[in-house]
Amino acid sequence: MRPLSYARAADADSAIAMVHDNRDSAFLAGGTTEVDLLRQNVLRPRLLVDINDLPLNQVEELPGGGIRIGALARMSDVARAGAVVQRFPVISQALLLGASAQLRNMASMGGNLCQRVRCSYFRDATSACNKREPGSGCAALTGFNRGHAILGTSDKCIATHPSDVAVALVALDAIVHSRGPAGGRAIPIDDFFLLPGDTPEREHPLEHGELISDRSTRDARRPPVALPEGPGSRVV
Amino acid sequence: MDSKVVAPLVERPPSAQPVTLNVNNRARDLRIEPRVSLLDALREQLGLTGSKKGCDQGACGACTVWVDGRRVLACLTLAVTCEGHEVTTIEGQSAAGQLHPMQAAFIASDAFQCGYCTPGQIMSAVALLEEGHATDDGEIAEWMSGNICRCAAYPSIRAAIRQVRDAASAGGE
Fold this sequence. Notes:
The complex is a heterodimer of chains A (236) and B (173).
Chain A (H helix, E strand, L loop, with lengths): L4 E4 L3 H9 L4 E4 L5 H6 L7 E4 L8 E3 L5 E3 L5 H6 L1 H6 L1 H8 L4 H6 L2 H6 L50 H7 L3 E6 L2 E6 H4 L18 E4 L22
Parallel strand pairs in A: 1-3, 2-3
Antiparallel strand pairs in A: 4-5, 6-7, 6-8
Helix pairs in contact in A: 5-8
Chain B lengths: L16 E7 L2 E7 L5 H8 L18 E4 L2 E4 L12 E3 L12 H8 L9 H14 L5 H7 L10 H18 L2
């Protein structure tokens, strides 16, 4: 792993400002994808801003039947939260089908949405990959690709999205709330996950230094489901 | 960023810096770079070699430790992030030279062959009982699935877990 600087954030504004001001920086949440990819030189930030102390780990019920899940709530905690189990079991079940007990104790909900693809060519820093190195080509197109996507692909990238719970959240019309240097915004989940098109390196609309904050569903019959509140961009 | 004043964060440089970790109820001072994993800090700086480096990429579970009582993977945890938190390793399970009941059960059930994955298995197994995920063999297998044993000692590992589970419920713990 390349040498890194490190800062632990006590408040969201400081974390956002620090990452926004430094192109070679990234938020650090659960780290389950990020530390792995740092070690493989797939991600190459010079500075990690640790956001784990930020108070973004709540699962709260909202008026109208929805829930809000903080971006730093861990997969394991969300999966067993009473409101999630009783009212949105699809979220709980999707979470419990992913990873392992140890990883679920570490991985944050915000990081889950922003986790990077499992494509072995993306994760091999010496292979051509438009997602990792825009313009370098896609080794998966002619490589070992039987596990790759057949829908929503482009001639630049055929990787599948790795998140199980993302499927549940799409079904629930969740909304991703984020905070950035310019303030907060709400992003419908359908607009959060971008198709690869000609820019596979852009996987979501978050800007550098913008953090996820929470989710809600728009379906009136199924009010706000909750999701992450916390860091989005580059948070893993 | 509106016009509000944002306090700058303290940035640790990439070089080795003092870090204090609380490991097995003991404060340990060490000098490490921010990029050092908890696993490497435990093994190479503190001499706690019970936690094993199997895959070093979060797949095998041999490095399983607890942070604040929750089982996590030390290979995917940066040591510096553990400052201010409680780290527990397999060495912390046998207080005063007494084996933890799970360690004794692993021996009694012959729940290992090469033994390399065993510390991680035991750290997960103890947590598993705390979490209440040991109702039957199917549930034990699912919730122990983050710990790989390439010797395939799984039936004996499950037997050891059942033994501790049943002893605890019989004794009222």
